[in-house]
Amino acid sequence: MFKLFTYLADWIVYNLAGIDSGSHLGQALHFFVEDTSKILVLLFVISFIMGIVNAYFPIEKVRDFLVKRKMYGLEYLVASLFGAVTPFCSCSSIPLFIGFVNGGIPLGITFAYLITSPLVNEVAVAMFIGYFGFKITGIYVISGIILGMAGGFILGKLKLENSLTDWVKQIQRQSTSNSIEYKEENIPFTKRLPGITCDSWSIVSGVLLYVLIGIALGAAMHGYVPEHFFATYLSADKWYAVPLAVLVAVPMYANAAGIVPVIEVFVAKGVSIGTALAFMMAVVGLSLPEATLLRKVMKWKMMAAFFGLVTLFIIISGFLFNFLII
Amino acid sequence: MEIKILGTGCAKCKALEATVKKVVAELGIEANVLDEKDVIKIMDYNVMRTPALVIDEKVVSQGKNLTEKEVKNLLCNDNTCSCHN
Fold first, then answer.
1. A249-296, pLDDT tens digit by residue?
2. Which of A81, A101, A261, B72 is least buried, going by the fewest C-beta atoms within 10 A?
3. Do B83 and A194 touch (CB under 8 A)?
4. Could you tell me if residue A185 is inside a domain?
5. Mode of pairing for the β-strands spanning B2-6 and B32-36
6. Digit-coded pLDDT (tens) for A15-30
């Protein structure tokens, strides 16, 4: 199915630009054109699909849904699934957190959303399909959703309500949950289409630079990092490979677009896929900038529980991946 | 007219603020453009996605970096979105 992009790159580089297919320049350009076009098309398609879902299930409606329905445990799955399909922006995490908690949604379910949302996002999914194919992407997405559910469930059981910062508790007291009512806008699909296309395009153009940097960085690393370089430290048979990769990645913050091509190099040079997936999850799922934002709504105890538990779960998933995939 | 941009300082919020200021200047509207970065005050508007645009204390857009045309439409009280600039 992705052969199309090979033909496209053949045509652009060898026919249109007339560069010799045997030359280094020709091969490098071919690689660049093929990967870039593939990733950008995938990103557009996935943003578009998520855009359609979001047009019909905006976050306000999700909140309303979670507040009103009793789902006997299924709400963790619902919250986590919605976290996966909504585009994530770290600057929205606090308003979202407070909006959920104020609406009367239990903390555990709010956490399920909060964990999955950065983990499974349109950029990560598009890059994963492009670089690792559908099987690995499926494993990544499903484990991200399960991670959110399990993490949210356990955090909910820890009864951390007291560890919300004081001003959050204050708004909680002031708000009356029934004052929030979502009004459905009845706009036909054909009217929504331009808006969705417009949004998808803005997602693509917003990360275009990171995609280009990521692909270039990955391509450069392929040439410079020696074969089996990582195998010594990070191969699957080393028990500390997964925890080490995750602990290094947690404080790091990188755009999913920039990190996936680098991870692909790791895998090509001897890192096992499970360790690489755990690394990816830790980079996009948890980060210091996110922690400083969340500190405004959570006291240290809740922060520690949130970061500690998610880190632990990512490490466990890394071991599971290594065990299952190889 | 009082226009507020609610946002915690992310790139999208800054972009929206710049767009709004540009449109206001272009249209020659008499308006006060303020940016609200305080999360506590932002939450008073009951928004869940930033950047949000508030015109005369009414939230007109959430979680979107609007185009110039969209801002123009909102300022002119018309809710249609389009990509053509």
1. 888 877 788 889 889 888 888 888 889 999 999 998 888 878 888 888
2. B72
3. yes
4. no
5. parallel
6. 888 888 778 788 888 8
